[in-house]
What we know:
Layout: H1 2-37, H2 40-43, H3 46-74, H4 83-108, H5 113-130, H6 132-147, E1 155-158, E2 163-170, E3 174-179, E4 184-188, E5 198-199, E6 206-214, H7 222-234, E7 246-252, E8 257-265, H8 270-290, H9 299-303
Amino acid sequence: DQMAVVAARQNKIGKIFRLPLTVLIWSLGAVYLADLMGPCSVTTFLDPLRKTVIVGTITWIFYRWKHAVEMAYLSQPSKKVDSTTIQMVGKLATVAVGILAGLIILQVFGFNIAPLLAFGSIGAASLGFAGKDVMANFCSGIMLHITRPFVIGDQIYLPEKELEGHIEEIGWFRTSIRDKEKRPVYLPNNYFSTMLLMNVTRMTHRRFKQQIKIGFDDINKVAQIVDKMRVCLENTPEIDTHYPLHAFLKSYGEYACEIELEAYSKLTDQEEFNRFQHRLLLKLQSILEEMDVKLAIPASYWKT
């Protein structure tokens, strides 16, 4: 198995280098023949051309290697691999290496690239000032990929917009969210750098909290009811007992004794938690039935 893995790696490396090196050898051979047979007016350009071929080949090899690395990471069935981040880093590397290779080739042919760099800096500053919102969204998009407050597929909640949904795409300038009504919502990336965001997918627990109101006629049974409900919560497998578990008489209300129950469930999926809460409430109701206790109902209810 280990030899097969080594052979596979060598095959991948061969695919990356084979075609560019073949083109490089043939190109250098053609330049060498032109140097032997061509006139002097032509041979003066052959040395820059030779260097250009070498720079182009190195750039080509880098692009092929980058593509192979991207495909290797994207093919891994792991939640830790974020396809959007990999693609963004790949695009940035492509642009950076392309610009660097272009500047080297211009310098090889004798062009002074210092004025070009100075003009590019001034142009970039002017463009950044004119399109500050676009640049803010672009930089925020890069920060989203670096800090990773969410990835594609995460469920998030934005309290200020009362928006909850799943991340579909993290683009260069905006992020796409599919809300609960299955409508696409597009937000500029700069929004996430200033607003409160909750990542629902990364929650570790869901809180179970209920208030049970018992009539004053059964006030002598409250202590026993609270003890039994606490035992019920402690013996429920879905409840994480490492976190605080509360079951106590909270207050005497206008028409009932208010018992408060609070615990943390290990379930994070909303549908699974709802089913668990349904079962747990039925268990608590059976405790009341066992002790012949009924839930309190406001007096105004009977008047209506």
